[in-house]
Amino acid sequence: MKRSRVILEATILAFLGALLPLCLTIYAAWSFSLRVEEDRLMSIAAQAATRAERSFTDAATTLRTLGGRRFISCTDAHIGEMRRLVINARTVEEIGYIEDGILKCTSWGAESRSVKELTPDFTIGPDIKAWVDVVPLVTGANPMSVVQVGPYNALVDPGRLVEVLADQSAAVVITAPNGVVTATLNAPDTDLTDKLGRDTAKGTVGDTIYAVHSKGGWTAAAVSPTNGLFGLFTREHWLFLVFGSFATLVIIALVIRMSRKRLSPLGELAIAVRKREFVVHYQPIIELSSGLCVGAEALVRWQRPDGSVVRPDLFIPLAEQSGLIQPITDQVIDAIGRDLGQLFRQHRSLHVAINFAADDFKTGRVLETVGQRLGSRGFANDQIWLEATERGLMDIDEARKTIAEARTRGYAVAIDDFGTGYSSLQYLQSLPLDALKIDKSFVDAINRQTATSAVIAHIIDMAKSLNLSIIAEGVETREQAEYLLDHGVEFCQGWFYAKAMPAADFIAYVETSLQRHDSGVVMLSRAKA
Question: Signal peptide position in this chain (predicted)?
Answer without folding.
Answer: none
